[in-house]
Structures are given as C-alpha cells and as structure tokens.
Amino acid sequence: MTIADMVNILNAKVLLGEDKLDTPVYTACCSDLMSDVLAFVDEKTVLITGLTNPHVVRTSEMLDLKCLVFVRGKIPTDDILENAQEQGLVVITSKLTAFSACGLLYDAGLRGVPVPTAWDTED
Amino acid sequence: MEELFRISYPVAAADYVNAGKASTDIKRRLKQLGVGGDVLRRVAVASYEVELNLVIHSMGGELTLTVFPDEAQLVSADVGPGIPDVDMAMREGFSTANDEARSLGFGAGMGLPNMKRNADDFSITSELGKGTTISMSFKLAQ
Which residues on chain B are in Cβ contact (under 8 Å) with A34? Predict the structure, then answer.
C-alpha cells in the first residue's frame, strides 16, 4: 500500500509531506518506547506511536524512517513538526487508538518489521 | 592511517532538549563525506544511543567523531560517575534511567547492547568516581 492508503484507512489528517503520499509502505512498527525502536528496527519503515516529543522525530531521523503516524489524535508541537519537515518526514495523525490503527493496517496487508529477539539466540 | 576529519561535541548532563543534536550533525557530516546506506544508519543509531547515555547517566562529557578513509570512530568520554558493574549494564533490559528519561521513551535497557550490535568494534571502560569511555568503530565502504 501507499501512505495515501494508510491515510484513508486510518481516516488520518496529513500534517506534513502531502507531496510524498504515493510512497509505498510494506511494514510498520508500533511503540512508545524509542529505546526499543532504536534497538529493533532495521529498515526504512513506518512508526506508529502516541508519544509526541522531539525524540520521536530524532529516532525517525537516525533510522531513516518514511512516515510517522500519531495515534489517539495527538499532534506534536510546531517546533517538533519543523524538525520533521527539515528531514522530509511524512507525518500523519489519526483519532484511532494504537491497537485499532494497527489492526486496520494489518488487515489491509501491512506487516510488522522482522524483529530479532533474545529468544532467537538462546537455542 | 590518515585522519580525514575530526570533531568533538560537548554533551551536558540532563539536557534532554538538546539530546541528539550532536548525532544529527554527525550524520549530516558523514553524509557530506559520501557515507551512506547501512553504515550511515548504524553510526547514527549508535551515536544517538551514546549521546543519550551521556545526557541520561553521566555528569557531562564529550562525543568525538574521527573519520579515516576506511573507518569512522566514535568516542564518548564522560567525567563520571562511572558504572559500578559494566557486565550488568551491558545486559539487555537492565537500566538505571530515571523517570524523566523513561517519560521520553528511553530507559528500556537497550542502549549499550544496541551500540555493540551496530558498531563493528565496541569497547567500554569505566571507573567509579572517574568516568566512562566508550569507543566504537565502523568500517566504511571503499
């Protein structure tokens, strides 16, 4: 699907990156824990989060993420959005909860990023 | 080995507002030097993690990037307080981060293991009351 499809599915509002909505997306991750996002995400994916602080954008920047999806109707402050704009990030916001947003996107074909866990190295 | 570029950034303790700005600059400068792809992302993530550690855990320190033709080095050196048990600190999930850091989405105990995972070479030395030095190197594609 494309980011435009995500916008439709989530009935979301586009805050930044109107010109990049045709970007294809295949995977997503959902977390409010940036430590885990930094540790587990290895690909240019979509981050779904309810956390709105400058570090969400910085984390996206370090990982070269494509799109930030804020849930529960959250909108970050202007300075955070300016930072996201400098990086060329697409930012959208949806009134849905993280659970519902993830469920709808999964149902439409989006999949989670492959995540290596400690279990994988135990055997 | 010929040093191409070196820059140091002072990082203040508990300065959560500016945390990450050094790493943003490091990423930008490496990109200007033609570094890209997987290695650029790994340097950026490790740099951000170590910069956050300086802000969250140290009494202040310095982050230094040195670039050689085939390698980038990141060194974080702080002025204390030092880590009582480095083996414990290296364990995934172990964290001594405070509530402020946790409220920003950090303190999952993934920082040090994630630096080690992203760097091609990683070393840490720490002395209580003196400070901690973390050195990482990354092979650059020719």
Answer: 104-106
Strand residues in B12-60 grouped as ranges (E): none
**Between chains, do A53 and B105 touch, taking CB under 8 Å as contact?**
yes
pLDDT tens per residue, range A11-28: 999 999 999 999 999 999
Q: Which domains are seen in chain A, by residue range?
A: 3-113 (3.40.1390.20)
Kindly list the domain boundaries of chain B, sorted by start residue. 5-139
Shortest distance, CA A14 to any CA of chain B (angstroms): 24
Chain A interface includes B92 (CB < 8 A): yes
SS3 B50: helix
Burial of B70 (0-12, 13-18, 19+ CB in 10 A): exposed
pLDDT tens-digit profile of A91-119?
999 999 999 999 999 999 999 998 877 67
Domain B5-139: homologous superfamily in CATH: Histidine kinase-like ATPase, C-terminal domain (3.30.565.10)
